[in-house]
Model the fold of this input.
Amino acid sequence: MTAHFKQRLGSQLAAAFRNDLLMGDTRKAMLELPKAIRGDFSGAKWSPSGSSQPFSVPENIGLYKSLTYNKSVITIFFDENKTSKCGELIFYYHRWMPALWALILWALLFAASVPIWLREKTKIEREYSLSVKAEIGESRATMAAQVAHDIRSPLAALGAAAKGLSADAEQRKLIEGAVGRMQGIANDLLARYRAPGAAEAKAKPVVMRLAGIVEQVVEEKRLQHAAKAGVRINFESDGGELKAEVEAKELQRAVSNLVNNAVEAFEKGGTVLVKVSSLDGRVLIAVKDDGKGIPADVLARLGGKGETHGKAGGTGLGLYHAKTSAESWGGSFKIESEPGKGTTVTMELPRAGVSDNEHKLVVLLDDDALVHMNWRMAAKAAGAELKSFKTPEELEAAREDLPKDIPIYIDAELGDRAKGDEVAQRLREKGFTDITMATGHSPDKFAGLPWLKVRGKEPPWNS
Done:
């Protein structure tokens, strides 16, 4: 279609300049042709058959442009019968102009579609990843539920058989305790499978004496590893009154895994010491062994999910569970090791169990003068000492003189838009261990800070 149109247009232009070219007057054609072809052709060339002067306007289209230009050739004759040729008037135009515009349009459409394609690709990948994770999670939950369901019957039979054993009372009690703990784990797995939210809501930490909980696990581990030559598992405690807010099954599971890690990493036997002690308002549960130790480059990674060392077939979940459990109870977790000398894994938890009447020295941060007056009167009646501050800046100025285990009570909404939970986080980072939000807000508002205690604005002393 384009070639036909160009041919017709060229014929019309040739007819307009035919007389001048027949007369050999090429000057007029050279002057007026550039205006006549503008917008329709890129150039024109007169190629005479006789002695007339040839010309090109505005340029001579050479062979090097033959790939990008097409031409319309109009032959001009002296006579109407077209028997005597005068010459050829050649008009040049871009060969690929429609294709070029089509290419440009395609490129623009492609460029515009790239962000959409990338967005859809990311969306599909994200949905696929979530789908795979959901399927994996469901598969694991189903498997855990199946294991929990199947194991309950043999555990019940084992528990019944243990009661009829001829072993002494202490050993029988140990076996029954181990069976009971396994049944609790199985029940917990089933509860999480049937109603994950409800199971998590029930697993609230409570204040418990730690020595008895930990010692029960140590007794089980002694029985479990009794056949391993040269392995000794010892237990020490600074006293039975050391308490912390924990979930008993999860703490026993954590200690059990830590002892197993120590024993299974021995090459030719060794000693494991499990110790419950106190330091600066904290309770320390330490599992220490005299094994081969852990290289520094490996030590830096331990505690992360899936990281393990020194155990054939180990998954790293034991250390990860102990770490996350300690942190969820407001504590911390650390691993210390030296190659050739052994390893110590320590769970540090805030010490609990101090009664309200034993709070002889208390810190209050609140911007309400009436609250300060109420607490001062209650402190005086209880024979206690109250250090009260109205702004975070005042508390910060006195912080260096305060013991790390002093009870600190903070209002949730302070003056100048200061937030009590943010102040509490800064104090915790400085090493303070007994921090309570004294507020009318629900504890759910501070669910992201599991170590933070929450109570009302009444003073902590009994009247």
Notes: The longest strand covers residues 342-352.
